[in-house]
Task: inverse folding
């Protein structure tokens, strides 16, 4: 009986549990023995490896976070630690390692594959910043969380006729800010890929006020400006006194949206089917509605940056 181990790595994201459940049950269904590893790559070194049965993953599909825990373990970039991890996995009889995480986690899997480990990566991060896939599990849920939060902030902004600044996550990418900005009707979205200069933001705010807007919502991606920088600039250069809300970990928590839970199920199925066909060391990607398998090298090259046309659309719609 071939043995599969699963780990979650990097920032937790809604849908990690749904993916753990789906991989476990699909793999057991196909005759594999399944193991969980706690705390990402650190857990391999700690040998926190234990068997997972179908019933162990019951009731987690709607839960946020990850039942396997996760960790940032930057030391894992060290080749000798990767070799050590490979030897530990071999000693435990693990044939395939399934990594659920973001691009850093995929690089960890790629590192292990260079030492001889058979791996697969299921993309799971709220940032949606991975090559090789147009959607990562967790992104859709985070968008819904931001849209919901901005709806509440908008009520107060409207009542007080005040500019609201909402800072969102996304690391160096503006996907969360741009897509949630379109969905919630933000007036201005500041993304790292195309950062609008702050004097331009002030000019825009004055114009919207002249056009009769009583309040405005500005979404700031964390990679675009330092926290609090936009608020300070606007305060110092205009008569506006914006409110500031940093959504922070609110965006990472909560159960997955239906889209993310379904994506987790579909990607997990393809992941196990691919291993059974004798192919490994692949990212499972979502491209134009299809679930594909992509080599790690190809995934790095196949980038899906923010869509400039959508950025233009947002500004047209916020007039
Ligand atoms: P994410 O997977 O969400 O992008 P990180 O960038 O923090 O999150 O990466 C998660 C973990 O993956 C890191 O803490 C580390 O253990 C591992 N990792 C990241 N980059 C590499 C790399 N270049 N080589 C090996 N392991 C890596
Ligand atoms: O990758 C997910 C993410 O939430 C990013 O959006 C953010 O930059 C980072 O993780 C924050 O990480 P930490 O867990 O170290 O606060």
Result:
């Amino acid at each position: 009986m071939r043995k599969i181990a699963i780990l979650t790595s990097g920032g937790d994201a809604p849908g990690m549990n749904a993916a753990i459940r789906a991989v476990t049950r699909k793999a057991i269904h196909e005759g594999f023995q399944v193991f969980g590893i706690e705390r990402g790559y650190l857990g391999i070194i700690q040998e926190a490896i234990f068997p997972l049965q179908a019933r162990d993953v019951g009731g987690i599909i709607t839960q946020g976070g990850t039942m396997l825990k996760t960790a940032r373990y930057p030391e894992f970039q060290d080749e000798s630690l990767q070799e050590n991890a490979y030897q530990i996995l071999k000693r435990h009889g693990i044939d395939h390692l399934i990594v659920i995480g973001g691009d850093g986690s995929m690089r960890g899997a790629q590192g292990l594959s260079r030492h001889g480990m058979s791996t697969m990566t299921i993309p799971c991060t709220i940032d949606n910043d991975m090559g090789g896939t147009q959607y990562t599990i967790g992104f859709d849920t985070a968008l819904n969380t931001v849209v919901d939060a901005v709806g509440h902030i908008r009520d107060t902004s409207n009542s007080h006729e005040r500019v609201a600044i909402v800072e969102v996550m996304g690391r160096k990418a503006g996907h969360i800010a741009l897509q949630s900005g379109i969905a919630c009707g933000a007036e201005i979205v500041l993304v790292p890929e195309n950062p609008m200069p702050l004097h331009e933001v002030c000019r825009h705010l004055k114009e919207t006020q002249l056009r009769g807007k009583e309040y405005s919502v500005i979404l700031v991606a964390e990679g675009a400006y330092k926290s609090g920088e936009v608020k300070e600039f606007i305060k110092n250069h205009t008569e506006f006194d914006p409110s500031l809300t940093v959504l922070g970990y609110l965006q990472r928590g909560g159960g997955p949206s239906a889209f993310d839970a379904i994506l987790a199920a579909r990607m997990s199925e393809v992941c196990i089917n691919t291993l059974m066909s004798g192919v490994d060391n692949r990212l499972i990607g979502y491209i134009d509605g299809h679930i594909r398998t992509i080599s790690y090298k190809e995934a790095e090259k196949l980038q899906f940056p923010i869509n400039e046309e959508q950025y233009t659309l947002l500004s047209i719609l916020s007039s």
In short: The two ends are 61 Å apart (CA to CA).
